[in-house]
Write a structure and sequence with these properties.
The structure is a homodimer. The first copy, chain A, is of the alpha+beta class. Chain A has 26 helices and eleven strands. The first copy, chain A, is globular and about 90 Å long. About 5% of the residues of chain A have low confidence. Chains A, B: One of its GO terms (molecular function) is acyl-CoA oxidase activity.
Chain lengths: ~650, ~650
């Protein structure tokens, strides 16, 4: 690619882990990451497993693990690499995520030296494949209520893993049906005391589920989840445990342990706090899932945009040939605002990756614990960004498919499988709706209250405007966007439609007002009316959460744009981000009108401005597609490469 | 089912073809209409073909064909039957549609006795399977520009079918890859005159593509379209023709013929008019596609609602068990407005089916030609309703899948395959965006202008407010909704939120104003600025089209509701249709605010009213699901039947 503007755009989007991304582009070949449409499920699973092993041999598994065990990169790099892997087959992406992120990550972050010594290097090298067995038939979102039991037996110094009910069976577990030798299994830890068992909440153990020959361990029953709506190359399955005995040392004991006398020990006394600390350690998974989905969306948009710029249909007076479909406003409207959002989300993804690196990365000295508020904010943003990014991916791939018509429905054009695969990204690593509630909960509650023994509806009663504003303000201290904001203030109400400062102000008003009013609504909650009061406001709560995340995304994007050198690329980026901001304002026009933030004249002007921006960006479409930095080798769709005829000469 | 309210709802939704629907419910068994997830493509194709043959043996192929050839039912009944078939596997539905609707329908409606005598009975009995070969690589939406040529050779009294360019190859043709013995092939008809060839526009021929042994005919090349994003049981493929010679009599000569002297003859002189008459004859396909998609949506919603009413997740203070997920407002909001739309669309589908029967049905005496305006209106509404219904299906199935979480992603729960299949319904039988433009074109243009040799942008210049209003008024003469309207007028601006007359008025205002203003915008169009002017207004044009169809849907629904006997079922239906109407108003809140049709207080009240209705409908969920009249045998999803555990006892 020789377009200097596109190269500058790419550099901006590549962000701090540019080298990881470029190494990936230089290194990969299509057969390392792509499949062939129509393979049988067995063939897809085998292909994905061997691609996983091959990528591991290239070091992809070592990124993000401690150097002491052969890890080679920092923690943030593992997220950037995952984004790049998202341009390939998403079955492979999920398989990589299960092996190195969920399974490997849980062993690494919840386990201690005894576990690391035993398996970490083999995990990185994909010599031991494993599962992350959290979800059960009865509980996906409400993990605190898992039913699997992990009971300590002091007689034998063992833990007994059991599935006491049909609904306690682990399900949808990646790697389970075919590949997993081991699994990190979550369940309620029980220890005996005074002739009864005391529960300590959800803990995890590392255990074998198959032996080296692949035979399932005694007491474990594994079933195949069978055909799914996507991700055919991932061997999801179920685990049922019939009082399986494992050594006490199998407990992943970073935050809690059972000592030699059989006593439960933890530095975190509150069970709720321990649970959230345990879960919080796994925040990288959410960040990666959002990033991977966003990559799939980018590739889909790239394919639809390239095809749209070639495909012609319908004649018009004064035009010799039929009109290029991307010249139609409706087609532009289908694709450009989603492209703009893809750009904005890239910056937000970079920002959260940096934040993860700063708070969880191995560069941080051990004694230098991050502030709880920072951890909480990271978790809140990870939850929200995951929801927004994965829904964006579903939506963008759908729009891309429709924009390509019948050709879009043919699998070799690389839209349908990605669309089907990305669907469940809205569900796994946290159901999106539940995640947005978590965001609201995070915003509405002081960090310390999070670990109290209170349900959400009660927590809401504790909200104060101060807390909410305090949280919001923390995100707003950056130089670039401060400058944009200051410029806008000087202009007053008659800001131009492309004024980033005005966009920021609109996004802030939406987020602040929504949060403040939802806080007021919920302040009356108590134990009796809590659920009903909260439930009646649930749409309002979700809106406030979304508004907050949208604001964070715009701030991250504008801050990154401001750091670009002045010139054509930056100007083009400013237009793209204007389109992102104005499209979002347009989507919520009714809210802005209802709350007096837009009058009807200006409200209509927003729509005109979106149309104008679509037209202005049209000539730059190839630059904008190239600017996303998708490895060209992975775009094989004939409609995008030009191999497929689109109309007569 | 014994719920008397549900039975009354079902009766209302069943409408005029109640008997066809009930016969279907009584007759069918799961293995006649369902597949098994995970079958290979070959197995699915074989299964679908044999299910097609079996349904033909039960007379499903005879519905809608003339009695003279063994047809048994009326034309409208074939649409109602297609809706019912939409509760089964959608690959089978499409296969049925290709065979009996597109292929059989084209032979029946575009051909004459010589063709009917030859093949019609065999088509009905599925003894001759066939394709409808219209779409080409280069042209899907713009069928007038097809490149396939059908050239008359007077020397041999033959027609020569040819694919002159790579982009002229027929593609995505159902039945082509495996089953089709014959095909109706569309192409440019050319006849010689004065040493050159004269083109007469797009015509169709009936020709063999395979012999009885299945061998492809000489000069025809067939390829398999391969793996698609859905509809795996449909053998889509390509046809390329290398100067294939067929007898002159193969021309489907209902509207045009070549006489024994080799002269082209048609009663419709204008080529454009001939084209639209030809295409218009096939309007049933669009009606059926919309109806079939809507059925798939109903089934998906039924599954999600039944599961949502059982599944529990998250505790709340004052509740012993975890909360049933359908008790959450966010979950209700995901499913209830879509359920309400499914109800409303059912009535609109019945209305358009009645209109088709009246205008195209065999009950009409031959001399009694329907008015051109009525035909035009039918085609406009068919186009619009197809777009709205198929997008609704994509959206509703997506929402249903997400509402069922991980379980929704497991194929045995019947959501994922339907979601994947229905995707392309938004594209075939007319791309939805293009169809909405057709609606606008229909509204903006007098019928006779449609057949002028003018492009859309020029046509738009001809609009007059009178024409537009005339067209709109024709839909508004019915007693039931007139009564609702009159009652509302008495109340003035302070109508209650559940006032159907107010809903009607809001839908009318949206439709009328949008159309009027788009007409004004386009009035300045001429040959020079036509395309640009039109293109800049394209979003406005599409909005006007959608607003018109939404209005038609509400009118049809309320009219049908008004005909229900007074009582609980009717009251419940009124609530359902209120929810439909208010959700639609809520979706377009910004428009109503911008245009002074809602003030900000009332605008917020709309959202509250939607929330209230969700809560009010919650206790009736099983009645509303049963009321849709989906054959229970076809709902096999374990999460819906209760076979799957959802949480511990």
């Amino acid at each position: 690619m020789n377009d200097p503007i596109a190269l500058e755009l790419r550099k901006a989007l590549d962000g701090p882990w540019q080298q990881v991304r470029q190494d990936f582009r230089d290194q990969i070949e299509p057969d390392m990451l792509l499949g062939t449409p129509g393979e049988s499920i067995e063939a897809q699973r085998d292909r994905v497993t061997s691609q996983l092993v091959r990528l591991a041999s290239l070091g992809h598994g070592r990124v993000g693990f401690p150097e002491a065990y052969g890890g080679t990169y920092d923690y943030g790099a593992s997220c950037a690499l995952f984004e790049m892997q998202g341009y390939g087959d998403l079955s492979l992406l999920v398989k990589l995520g299960v092996q190195f992120g969920l399974f490997g990550g849980a062993v690494s972050r919840l386990g201690t030296e005894r576990h690391h010594d035993e398996v970490l290097t083999d995990i990185m090298d994909a010599k031991i494949l494993g599962s992350f067995a959290m979800t059960e038939i009865g509980h996906g979102s409400n993990v605190q209520r898992l039913e699997t039991t992990i009971t300590f037996d002091p007689e034998t110094n063992e833990l007994v893993v059991n599935s006491p009910t049909p609904s306690s069976v682990k399900t949808y577990i990646g790697n389970a049906a075919k590949d997993a030798r081991m699994a990190v299994v979550f369940g309620q830890l029980l220890t005996p005391a005074n002739n009864e068992f005391v529960g300590h909440g959800v803990h995890a153990v590392l255990m074998d589920v198959r032996d080296e020959s692949g035979k399932v361990v005694d007491g474990v029953t594994i079933e195949d989840n069978g055909v799914k709506g996507g991700l055919p190359g991932v061997d999801n399955g179920t685990f049922a445990f019939d009082n399986v005995r494992i050594p006490r040392s199998a407990l992943l004991n970073k935050f809690a342990d059972i000592d030699d006398e059989g006593n439960y020990q933890s530095d975190i006394e509150n069970e709720n706090a321990r649970f959230f600390t345990t879960i919080g350690t796994l925040v990288r998974g959410r960040i990666c899932v959002g990033g991977g989905a966003a990559s799939a969306a980018k590739k889909g948009l790239a394919i639809a945009l390239r095809y749209g710029a070639r495909r012609r249909q319908f004649e018009a007076p004064g035009h010799d040939q039929e009109i290029v479909v991307l010249d139609y406003l409706a087609h532009q409207r289908k694709l450009f605002p989603r492209l703009a959002k893809a750009y904005a989300l890239s910056f937000a993804q970079n920002a959260i990756t940096e934040s993860l690196q700063e708070l969880h990365g191995d560069t941080r000295a051990d004694g230098d614990a991050p502030a709880k508020e920072d951890i909480r904010e990271l978790e809140t943003r990870a939850a929200g960004l995951k929801a927004i990014s994965t829904w964006h991916a579903v939506d963008a791939l759908q729009a891309a498919r429709e924009a390509c018509g019948g050709a879009g429905f043919i699998s070799e054009n690389q839209l349908t499988q990605a669309r089907a695969d990305v669907d469940v990204f809205a569900t796994f690593e946290g159901d999106n709706t539940v995640l947005l509630q978590l965001v609201a909960k995070g915003l509405l509650t002081e960090y310390k209250e999070m670990f109290g023994d209170l349900a959400m509806a009660e927590l809401a009663g504790l909200v104060t405007k101060q807390v909410a504003e305090g949280l919001v303000e923390r995100t707003a201290g950056r130089a670039g966007i401060q400058r944009l904001r200051d410029i806008a203030k000087g202009r007053g109400h008659e800001s131009a439609m492309d004024d980033s400062g005005w966009h920021l102000s609109m996004f802030e008003q939406r987020a602040d007002h929504a949060l403040e009013t939802v806080g007021k609504r919920l302040r009356r909650a108590n134990k009796e009316n809590g659920f009903e009061l909260f439930n009646d406001a649930q749409d309002h709560v979700l809106f406030a959460a979304r508004a907050h995340i949208d604001r964070c995304i715009l701030e991250d994007a504008l801050e990154s744009m401001e750091q670009m050198p002045d010139g054509e690329a930056k100007d083009l980026m400013a237009q793209v981000l204007s389109l992102y901001a104005l499209s979002s304002i347009e989507d919520d026009k009714a809210w802005f009108l209802e709350h007096g933030r837009l009058n009807t004249v200006r409200s209509r002007a927003v729509t005109s401005a979106v149309n104008d921006l679509c037209k202005e960006l049209r000539p730059h479409v190839h630059t904008l597609v190239d600017g996303m930095g998708i490895p060209e080798e992975l775009i094989t769709a004939p409609i995008a490469t030009g191999e497929q005829t689109t109309s007569y000469a």
